[in-house]
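Example record

The entry below shows one chain as it appears in the dataset: sequence first, then structure tokens.
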Amino acid sequence: MNIIVVEDHQELAGELMRFLTDSGYICTVKKNCKAALDEIDRNEYDVMLLDLGLPDGDGLDLLKTIRKNKSKMGIIVITARGELDDRINGFHLGADDYLTKPFALTELSARLFAVIRRIHGFTMNELPIHGFRIQLQDYKVRHGEQTISLTKKEFDVFQYLVLNKNRVVTRLQLTEHIWGDILEINSDSNFIDVHVRNLRKKLEKHEKLDWFETVRNVGYRINE
């Protein structure tokens, strides 16, 4: 999952980035409204953690602007402004949740996972697909009673394809989601294909994969 943190307080931004990275997320930090807007124009994110008191504008104005074009991205407001009116305005403008500083990182983790579940339309902590079970919080894939040993990247690829089942996911979309900023990636690299090939080999030991489709010159699709 790709997370963008919009926070100008350097110490808090660093703490959030370390925590989210250690939790298995791809994390990018931006310190103001303009940088955040430029970033989400270039790359896709699942969730934004948005501070309201930014140096070049109000986070609520940024929230309003984002919701015009990024209706599916989850947004959790994180701010020291805990007044009721601010919270109500934030929800009316499209915030998915609201955390008042200071907050426990464990609470952030729980709220973040709840928002991700709502975005992708599932209610349990597992994603089932053709006999496999993707355990979202434990970063494990199981088939029956067996745990399949996947690398972090293989797990992320499988999870993202299942979350977008019945739709073609392009190699570029996988690159943006799994590796973050596409500007830092060599677009001619075949690393996506290598990870998918290794993932398939491991899954094929347990189940026939006629539902795991390669769309030539485009990407991949998992059919339900």
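Notes for this example: The chain has two domains: 2-120, 126-222. The first strand starts at residue 2 and ends at 6.
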